């Protein structure tokens, strides 16, 4: 299950892993509902057809009580029953990312289930000042990277130089080099159970 704030975050942060495991039961939660057609197209490119949009305001998640976000995330988790949740990095520059990270930490606390929690990196938001130091890598195939780059292109209103398909490919090569693969996506383990 992914719980990422904005349309395009799921593709930028873990589009390769979504494509790699698209035959498994995956749910993408996106609290902000905008550019819906672009999001559906990108998710379709990745082979994902299970997603839920929320009704929270873009770039304003901090105006809501944290409990509202926690309840929204928790209610969807109860229906889906994930074993792994991928969300934002706690020190992202984007306040929506940080707010949603906090909601996920609370929603995944080990009360009923032991849900593993991973943070992903979003180009142009996560990697500043060396704060994001991955400790978990997922190997990706060239096909996974091509699908991720195509999905990024589906977000025609969101593409910037820092989020271009070329940057996506370069970052996957760097993360691959760090972990002994050709291509990889990198994560920080926030909560894990053996």
Give a short overview.
The chain has helices at 9-20, 36-46, 66-80, 95-107, 142-154, 165-179, and strands at 2-3, 28-32, 51-56, 84-87, 116-120, 136-140, 183-191. With 194 residues, it is of the alpha/beta class.
- Would you tell me the structural class of the helices and strands? alpha/beta
Q: What's the total helix number?
A: 6
**Mind summarizing the main beta sheet?**
4 strands, mixed
- The whole-angstrom Rg is 15 Å
* Topology order in helix (H) and strand (E) letters: EHEHEHEHEEHHE
Describe it.
- Helix content is 41%, strand content 19%.
- Helix 1 runs antiparallel to helix 5 (142-154) and helix 2 (36-46) runs antiparallel to helix 5 (142-154).
- The strands form two sheets. The protein has a four-stranded mixed sheet with strand order 4-5-7-6, sandwiched between helices.
- The chain has helices spanning 9-20, 36-46, 66-80, 95-107, 142-154, 165-179, and strands spanning 2-3, 28-32, 51-56, 84-87, 116-120, 136-140, 183-191.
- The chain is α/β, with parallel strands linked by helices.
- The chain contains six helices and seven strands.
- It has a single domain, classed as 3-Layer(aba) Sandwich (Rossmann fold).
Annotation keywords:
alpha/beta, Rossmann fold, 4-stranded mixed beta sheet, 3-stranded parallel beta sheet, 6 helices, 7 strands
């Amino acid at each position: 299950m992914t719980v990422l704030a904005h349309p395009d975050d799921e593709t930028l942060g873990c589009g390769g892993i979504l494509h790699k495991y698209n035959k498994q039961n995956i749910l993408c939660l996106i609290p902000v509902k905008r550019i819906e057609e672009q999001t559906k197209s990108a998710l379709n490119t990745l082979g994902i057809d299970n997603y839920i949009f929320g009704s929270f305001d873009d770039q304003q998640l901090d105006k809501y009580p944290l409990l509202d976000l926690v309840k929204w995330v928790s209610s969807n988790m109860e229906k889906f029953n994930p074993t792994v949740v991928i969300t934002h990095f706690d020190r992202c520059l984007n306040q929506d990312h940080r707010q949603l990270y906090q909601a996920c930490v609370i929603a995944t606390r080990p009360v009923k289930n032991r849900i593993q929690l991973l943070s992903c990196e979003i180009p142009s938001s996560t990697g500043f000042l060396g704060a994001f130091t991955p400790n978990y890598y997922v190997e990706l195939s060239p096909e996974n990277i091509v699908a991720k780059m195509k999905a990024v292109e589906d977000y025609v209103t969101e593409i910037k130089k820092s989020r271009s398909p070329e940057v996506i490919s370069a970052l996957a090569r760097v993360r691959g080099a760090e972990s002994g693969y050709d291509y990889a996506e990198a994560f920080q383990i926030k909560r894990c159970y053996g």
